[in-house]
Amino acid sequence: MVTASVMPAPHAPMELRTFDRPRLEPGAVLLRTLGSEVCGTDTHLQRGQLAGVPYPIIPGHVAVGRVEEIGGSDPVLDVSGAPVEIGQVVTYLDVYGTCGRCWFCTIAHASTRCPYRKVYGVTMSCADGLYGGWSEHVHLRPGVHIVPLPEGLDWRAFLAVGCGMPTALHAMTLGNVAFGDTVVVQGAGPVGLSAAALAQLRGAGQVVVVGGPDVRLDAARRFGADAVIDIASTTETERVEAIRDLTGGRGADVTVEATGVPSAVPEGMRLTRDAGRYVVVGQYTNAGDASLNPHLDLNQKHLDVQGCWGSDTGHVYRSVQVIARYARQFPWTELISAEYDLSQTQRALDDVAAQRTVKALIVP
Amino acid sequence: MVTASVMPAPHAPMELRTFDRPRLEPGAVLLRTLGSEVCGTDTHLQRGQLAGVPYPIIPGHVAVGRVEEIGGSDPVLDVSGAPVEIGQVVTYLDVYGTCGRCWFCTIAHASTRCPYRKVYGVTMSCADGLYGGWSEHVHLRPGVHIVPLPEGLDWRAFLAVGCGMPTALHAMTLGNVAFGDTVVVQGAGPVGLSAAALAQLRGAGQVVVVGGPDVRLDAARRFGADAVIDIASTTETERVEAIRDLTGGRGADVTVEATGVPSAVPEGMRLTRDAGRYVVVGQYTNAGDASLNPHLDLNQKHLDVQGCWGSDTGHVYRSVQVIARYARQFPWTELISAEYDLSQTQRALDDVAAQRTVKALIVP
Amino acid sequence: MVTASVMPAPHAPMELRTFDRPRLEPGAVLLRTLGSEVCGTDTHLQRGQLAGVPYPIIPGHVAVGRVEEIGGSDPVLDVSGAPVEIGQVVTYLDVYGTCGRCWFCTIAHASTRCPYRKVYGVTMSCADGLYGGWSEHVHLRPGVHIVPLPEGLDWRAFLAVGCGMPTALHAMTLGNVAFGDTVVVQGAGPVGLSAAALAQLRGAGQVVVVGGPDVRLDAARRFGADAVIDIASTTETERVEAIRDLTGGRGADVTVEATGVPSAVPEGMRLTRDAGRYVVVGQYTNAGDASLNPHLDLNQKHLDVQGCWGSDTGHVYRSVQVIARYARQFPWTELISAEYDLSQTQRALDDVAAQRTVKALIVP
Amino acid sequence: MVTASVMPAPHAPMELRTFDRPRLEPGAVLLRTLGSEVCGTDTHLQRGQLAGVPYPIIPGHVAVGRVEEIGGSDPVLDVSGAPVEIGQVVTYLDVYGTCGRCWFCTIAHASTRCPYRKVYGVTMSCADGLYGGWSEHVHLRPGVHIVPLPEGLDWRAFLAVGCGMPTALHAMTLGNVAFGDTVVVQGAGPVGLSAAALAQLRGAGQVVVVGGPDVRLDAARRFGADAVIDIASTTETERVEAIRDLTGGRGADVTVEATGVPSAVPEGMRLTRDAGRYVVVGQYTNAGDASLNPHLDLNQKHLDVQGCWGSDTGHVYRSVQVIARYARQFPWTELISAEYDLSQTQRALDDVAAQRTVKALIVP
Fold first, then answer.
1. Superfamily of domain covering B164-307
2. Least Cα separation, residue A225 to chain D (angstroms)
3. Interval B108-122: pLDDT, tens
4. ipTM value of the model?
């Protein structure tokens, strides 16, 4: 039998449930879970803020596990083309079933908008299988994109940023940072902190994190932010002024939004210089409208604003490489504030919702 | 003596004035004006809607003229490196004085945001010289970027779109249209009509113009629009529906805004498909705020929104090449609704403000 | 029974053979072939110049057919997401089996380099099925990307360029043509002629085709080339001179190679201006080495050279849209020099090899 | 009087000469030289390998100095828009006179191909002024783009890479490195070592330097190269194999050539993976031809090859920001092998030509 933590319905408390160990179809892989993480999405799920979620679900969209069983007799290949082996430590793209045949996949090359994709831990029901990381085992269906962790990479280091990092890496890639640019990151959660680290791995000349609370701003400083601005003790006008003071009066070359607060979007436009670039990645749920001035904030500013949705396998794969290669420079595991076992997932959710943590792990 | 039409101050009627013929400094060029145009900017100027305008001014930022005199004894070179010759028909970039040395010119390579640039017909006073096209002569100061009209190109064909075309060309370049894309243009004025033509010169699969009034929608059809949508008889919801019906339910691949109306901006986002591209070029003056939903309109949509300000010499040069090369395909001169002499400029402004024209020319 | 024309082995003459009508697996589609084409690749195949070809094969990688049967009871979707219907006229991407899971598919996003892809008419044996267009029927396996022809598009118009156009469209997309650019196309075969048309659908200011023989240069002129240069009666030096004369001494802004001749590559570099762009798409088989000067031809020239391999579904889909939308402007069917039935395929190959045709069709 | 080291003619030994202190025109700046560097270009100059050099010249195209005098009474602005002040430590773009008006400047936006540009220390004669860094003073003419060194940046740290870094930064920008990519650098001179550092500031997953001799490979390791390959003890085949071994059999994602040896170019193509990117920046002089296979090395490979010429002000400005921001990570000054005074410049040239140094400085 397999024990997992289940979110039965919106607004209902987490429950421990047991499931049969799955019988693997050819091409499937069963992981023994080493760890999974708690992210803001999980708190949104419990509040019922996402559409199309087939409760009950096993949360935990990002996880790391050890390969325990492989379905069928043919080798199962990871994304680098090597056969997956029993005992190997791997992660995987949480998005399953991107079709490769629809208009968005084939014509627009916008795979994160494929309508057939499902997400482990979010849009796959525990009635159908062990499709989430808050479980002793995770069932990787045939076709899941498996990414091996390099030897020498502590799986905790990966999980410390493994959820926010691919999102941040996608956003920072779209941000087109040039060497020496000033990069402003709005938000000091896991996506924002990953973005601050990645800005330095694009050769930014100056990295500023705007957010809170203190525990997160301290982490931002440890991860190399040249300056931090506390959102709680400043007004929008003061923040715009502060960024201009740091940039010869111009504003940020590149700004990345990772807050989830609608009013952050027009503010981010104003934090950015004329002819700069602004990537909006944090508006993951519908939290209402925002008002802006199309002439001043967009057109006269010659501003490029890029909405950024989801991640693909490349973002996860590249995250793994970056986390491993630059582990000496960035103390990833320091971001882990607390670890919880499967019986403590409700407390984990409460701590994350209250921003008492930087990163919380579930370790079955 | 030189006669010109002068805008003395905001809200004041146009006046005819006479000026001394200028003495040319070395490197300057005096044009005998063949024609200039009236654009929406000129009506904004008369209403005092632009900041930093040193009234009195001679309007007419785009003009075509015949070279009548060249200052100094050294050759003056056009942008292709050839010496300008007496009798030659030329146009020029209306933006004068882009410094080539400031941070925006040298580091950001965003020359349209150079703070030193001045604009013929807009930010140069007639107290200082013949710096606008509504005049018998135009004084091109040393360093003005001169673009020759190719032989065989009717100067009226150039002026029919010579003001809106470089702006549209800039916007359509930023639009990154792919072969076969559906392109929606919001606005059927000179910029919008130029954009509709240019969409076909990017190989668009379908071009839709959303605007009015009828005279302009008719012009849009003659310029190859596959469909037009009358803004006056439809709601935003109906327009979004109409575009979805034309695109398999997805929305436009690329949308270009050329209206000047703030609410057009969130609407344009909704007209565009997920992972599409939206260029905002028509918000030339501050006409107020607009409200949008950052989650639905931007982030989940993975939308790329590009503000587009001004034009540079390349946009004018390329416009000239395109207008000349595709003159058989597009009947540019049909866009000219009326021509006015220097004594009729107030009537021209009134006709343009009332949208009684597609394009109005001033012919001294 | 189904009749098809088979290429038994390299250097062997074509043969008519009959096959059982296939039993369709769920998701498969059987086409009644309307037409297929002969391309240079087919002559290379007969000469044994491609590696990894599982002879005997049914040639004809591009084809158009009418849907005659659909395997299974579930709908089969085309790339726009609509269900394929009996009687519908469709084409398809000849590349089958791009895996969507390997490193090239997921990390490099370079699907044309996926090692698992097979090509209808090239790398699929007739021992395994009706996998080529020179046959009364074509068996589309589950997962083949089906692209419907729009109503009103003559299938002959599509086939007139349906093989070369996606390749040219890929190349011209990589060419990043700017409005008004001078585009030089090396080669006047089907890829080159398609490229010359597409250059005009990118708003080129001038299109020059360098090639031969006369029948193809005539076609180039009818398709809008502003100038043609006969490769047979000129030297490389003269061609470089000729292009410089047409471009103010600078050279082409964008050059596209579509010849298959190695020495065309250094020549193409010299035909292109400093800081220009050169796309090499015609070197489909190994025809030997070429010598160039890295300092003069590449580094000092600040030249961008892009090799371009294969096409994906998007290229075929976009080609269909472009061919349909611009059929009034470009007389596609005029490119068809001759049609052959299944018993005449050897003659067709001979005519193509001798360049006696512009485009030859096989019409079963 | 001002003492400078002069290169009288090709193949002639260096000489000390004295010059009058220049009278500054308005907008000019006189620097007291703190240091200049010796680069490969200087050895090419002494061998007469560059065309159009107006000997006698004062070499030293990159230099740092303290502002000693400012011409005229108006402020002279640096590229950030701040007035230059007496006593300030600055560098400058060695390229003077980029016109901002020719076809390459205005239409192609390819300023490094502007035909009017002159280069301090290379194409400006000492008969005309103190236009090179191997001199007690450097005369910055009006319009020279001045870049201030940030407080806290040791000028030696800048000069340690100040010549190669802008070139490498230009190349690495064109290289479009993605997070986690494997980057191979051909050449371990100042450009190659700068490129290896910058690859890590683009988030490369693996950096490999191919070059020699040992002193330079040691420096490459200290600057973070994950692997080095000694060019002297390996064959091309072995090097291609070695890179494939490090990349799952694929080759480098991005390769940067910084060697000056023609045969390095086809080799670099082979070191790079299919659909990868190759930047050629080291072929600064004409050292002969190279032979490649257009089918295998370019077309089938879907390779993107970018020639990279010169640097602009942005590259220098961004280099300064990067050198200052990442000084803790990279021990720039360790690259300085030796310093020479103005009387020792011939020895400096000899040491550089013999590759006895990594970086040699001239300190007047």
1. NAD(P)-binding Rossmann-like Domain (3.40.50.720)
2. 11
3. 998 888 988 999 999
4. 0.96
